[in-house]
Amino acid sequence: MLVVTAIVAVLASVAIPTMLQAAERMRLGQSTREVEREMQAAKQRAVARQRAMRIRFNCPQPGQFRIVELIGTPLAPAGDDSAPDRCSTVRFPYPARDNDIVTRPNLDGPVRLLDPTVAFGAVETLEFWPDGTVHHAPSGQLSNWPMVPPAGVAITLTRSGTTSTLTVNGLGRIQVQ
Questions:
Q1: Phi, psi of 11 (to 5 degrees)
Q2: What is the CATH number of the domain that holds 158?
């Protein structure tokens, strides 16, 4: 009986940490897939509705992200588009108050939340254009964002020292790495 108990204890001491690590990787993977799906949705909405869509990270707070319709045009965004409360669901509700094309934004999505144990690492606002291309903002540039380079930009998520990366290239290809 003591030998069986000792064997079970040894197996448990090896298996439990491995199972905990697997659970952590699963949570990180699930959060990564949620962000990837939201990015795909932004791209699809931009193409289907012929409106530039942005996905903002850590907006309105860390660990939150939201698809927002570009107010104005990519070459001349309206002042409200860069407002500090642009992700606010009070000022820019989801769903929109109306679908009148004159009163934008109409296509903003809900604020999404990461698992509380997962955080964004490297992120930047991405803009999906109606032609399917992806653009990003160099620091401080408010309009006329350049297309993402062929190598893409990385969006990272971290959990307990483990990192997951989403890479988006200029043609809109989103890859989980």
A1: -60, -40
A2: 3.55.40.10
